[in-house]
Amino acid sequence: MTAPLIITRELRKSYALGGLEVQALRGVSLEIGSGEFVAVMGPSGSGKSTFMNLLGCLDTPSDGEYLLAGERVSGLGSDALAAIRNRRIGFVFQNFNLLARTSALENIALPLLYCGVFAAERERRAAARLAEVGLADRGHHHPAQLSGGQQQRVAIARALVNDPVLILADEPTGALDTLTSCQVMALLQQLNRRGMTVVLVTHERDIAEFAQRVVTFRDGRVVEDHRVAAPRDAAAMAAQLRAEAGVQP
Amino acid sequence: MNLVASMRIALRALRINKLRSALTMLGIIIGVAAVITMIAVGSGAQERIESQIKALGTNLIILMPGSTTAGGVRMGAGSRNTLTEEDGYAIQRDIPAVQASAPTLRGTGQVVGGSGNWSTVFQGVTPEFFEARNWVVAQGRGLEPQDIAGSAKVALIGDTVARNLFGDSDPVGQSIRIRKVPFVVIGTLEKKGQSLMGQDQDDIILMPISTARNRVLGQSSGRLRTVGSISIKVRDGEDMKAAEEQIRELLRQRHRLQPGQEDDFSLRNLSEVLAAREESSRIMGLLLAAVASVSLLVGGIGIMNIMLVSVTERTREIGLRMAVGARGRDILTQFLVEATTLALIGGLLGIALGLGGSLAIGHFAGWPIHLSAEPVLLAVGFAAAIGIFFGFYPARKASRLLPIEALRYE
Q1: Do B364 and B282 share a structural domain?
Q2: Per-residue confidence band for B54, with pLDDT thresholds at 50, 70 and 90
Q3: What is the mean pLDDT of residues B264-273?
C-alpha cells in the first residue's frame, strides 16, 4: 500500500480574537489516501473551513504536523507554500473567484503565469482544460458572460491546469441550483474516477453523499469518519433532473 | 512571472478604470510638462545672457579715470583725466597676463555720407581694441599700426551706421564726414546686436585713436594724451583677480600714488557683473524647476493614493492570485509595474505637453527657449522613479496580505 497523500497529526489552530484565544482546531489527526473522494462536513464554527485552509496551505497551523505527498508542509515559508499551492493543489471556491473582465482562457492559465510557463504553452494547456470541462467554445468569454455552472466549470479547469495531486473544493455548489450542482459534482466524480484526490467541504448532506468518505467536524475535532457504502452517481442524477424538467416544462 | 506579463496585467487594470487612470496621470502630466517648460524657459534666459557675455568679450576689464572732487562734490567716475594712452601701452607691455590693452577715446557727432546723415558714437582706438572687445571686421580691412602713426582719416562703421547711411549698397571705399572731417570707410563691423543694457552696439564708428584726438575732437597734442577708458582683455586661463591687482599696482606706480592714497582710476570687471546676472537667472530657473517639481511630487502622491485604493479594491483578486501560487514578490511586482506604467505614460504625455508648451511660449511670448535632451530624459527618469517610489508602499502592502485573509475579504 502506498503512503497516504495527506497526513495530519494533532493539527491545531488558534486565533487571537479581540484578546480572546479562539481554538478553531483542537488536534486533528487524519489520513487521506491518494485517489480518495472525501467530503468534510460540520456546522459553521466546527473548524472544517480552518482545516481546509490548512490543507490548502493558505494558512499555517499553530501546532501539529501536516505532510502532503510525503513532504512536511507545516513550517515552510510563504514562498514555498505558494509554490505548493501552485503546483500541487487546485482550488475550487464557492463564489468561483474568477478574475472579472478576463477571458475564461486567461483565467484558467493564471496558475501557469506564476510558474514560468511561456504564453503560447499557457494558452495551449488552458484550451485543453477548457475542452475537458466541455466549454471549448467559450474560451474568450468573460465570467460575466457565463452562467454560474459554466463559471464553476472554468474554475475547475483552472484548478486542473497545473496537474495538481489534490483538488480542494470549498462549498463548490453553494451558489448553484440543484441541476447545476449535480453537473459540477458529476465533473468532480469524473475527475476522481481518473485518480484525482478530491477533498470537498460542504454543509449539505446531499452533496456529501456524492463522496466515498464523509468526515464530520464539531468544535474543532473530528467526531465522525465513515465510508459511504454506495456514493450517489451525480451524472445519473443530473440526467434524471433534466428529464423531469423536460416532462414538466 | 515575467515583466511582459506584468505589463499586460497592469495595462488591463488601468484600462478597466479609464477615467481614474487618466485623472491620476494628469498629476504626472502636469508635473512633467511644468518641469520641462520651466527648464526650457530658464535655460533659454541663461543662454541669452551667456551669448551676451560672449559678445561683450569674456575676461574683460574696463579701466576708467577716477572721480574728481570739486568743493566737496564728487563728480563720478571718468570725470578726471588721469588715464593716458601710454598707460594703455604700458599695461600691454609690462603685464604678461594681459592679452590686449586698448586705450579708447570716445565722442559723439553727426555723420554725413552716402544718401543720409546720422548721429552716432565714434571711438578712437588702436588695433588691440578689436581683440579686446571681440570686434570682427565683416568687410574690408581693420586698423593697422600705420593708420595710428599717420593719423589716417579712415573709419570702420557698424551695421546700424552702414544701413542708415548707405542702405543696401556697399559702404567700403565710400567717403563719409564725421563732424565735417572727411573719412574713407575701410571696412564694416560684424553685427553684435543689443548689449545687456539694451544699447545698440552696432551704432558705432571706429577710427584710429590719433585721428580722433587730433582731427575730430581737436584736443591739443600735449604731453598728456588722456583717454576715456582702456579696455583690457586678460588671457584665457589667467586669474582675473591677480591680473586686476597687477594692473592696479602698475597704474599706482605710474601715477606716483603714495600708499594710503586713493586710486585715481577705477577697474571694472564687466564679466563679474554678468556672471552675477547669469547666476541670478540660473537661480530663477532652479526656483521655477523646484516649483514645477512640487507639482510632480503632488502627482506622485496622487499615484500612491490611487494605488492604495486599488489594492484595497482588489484584495480578493490578490487573494486568488496568491491561492493559485503567486508569491509576495509577484504581487509586489504586479502593483509596482502598474504604478510605474501609470507614471511613465503620464510622463510621456507630459513630455509631449511640455515640449509643445515650450514651443508655444517661445512662439507667442517671444521668450528665448532652450530645449535639450537632458530635462526630457530627467523627466522620464523622474516619472518612473515616482511610480516606483510612490507605488512601493501600496505594492508592499498588497504583497504582505495573507492569502486566506485576502480571499475572505468582503
Answers
A1: yes
A2: low
A3: 78
Q: What angle do CA A34, A228, A177 make, to 5 degrees?
A: 95
Q: Judge whether A198 and A32 are in contact, CB under 8 Å.
A: no
pLDDT score for A6:
94
Last residue of a domain, one of B179, B211, B232: B232
pLDDT of res. A123: 92
* Same-domain status, B285 and B220: no
Domain count, chain A: 1
Alpha helices in A4-118 (DSSP H): 48-55, 78-88, 104-113
The minimum CA-CA distance between B316 and chain A, rounded to whole Å, is 8
Which chain A positions have a beta carbon within 8 Å of B329's beta carbon?
A: 79
Q: What's the pLDDT score for residue B281?
A: 80
Do B200 and B283 sit in the same domain of this protein? Answer: no
Nearest CA in chain B to A87: B325
B250, B253, B256, B257: CA torsion to nearest 10: 80
Domain hosting A200: range is: 6-247
Predicted pLDDT at B58 = 66
Contact B325 A82 (CB under 8 A): yes
Contacts of B190 (CB under 8 A, 6+ apart): B135, B136, B137, B138, B159
My answer on whether B199 and B316 are in the same domain is no
- Give phi and psi for B260, each to the nearest 5: 95, -20
The model's pLDDT over A161-205, given as tens digits with 9 standing for 90+, comes to 999 999 999 999 988 999 999 999 999 999 999 999 999 999 889
Alpha-carbon span A159 to A167, nearest angstrom: 7
For residue A151, give the CATH number of its domain.
3.40.50.300
Question: Could you tell me if residue B209 is inside a domain?
Answer: yes
Residue B223 exposed, middle or buried by CB count within 10 Å (0-12, 13-18, 19+):
exposed
Which amino acid, B119? S
Q: What is the pLDDT of residues B292-324, one digit of tens each?
A: 888 888 888 888 899 999 999 999 999 999 999
This complex has an ipTM of 0.93
Using only C-alpha atoms, what is the Rg of chain A?
18
Do B396 and B338 lie in a common domain?
Answer: yes
Is residue A1 one of the residues assigned to a domain? no
Is there a domain that residue B58 lies in?
A: no
Confidence of residue A221 (pLDDT cuts 50, 70, 90): very high
For B343, the domain range is: 3-52+276-408
Rounded Cα distance between B24 and A88, Å, is 40
Q: Which of B1, B16, B317 sits opposite A113 (nearest CB)?
A: B1
Q: Which amino acid, B247?
A: I
Q: What ranges in B64-204 are assigned the alpha helix state H?
A: 85-94, 128-132, 145-149, 159-166
Between B12, B16, B324, which is nearest A86 by CB? B324
pLDDT in tens, A109-149: 999 999 888 889 999 999 999 999 999 999 999 999 999 99
**What is the SS3 assignment for B236?**
coil
Are the C-beta atoms of residues B56 and B403 closer than 8 Å to each other? no
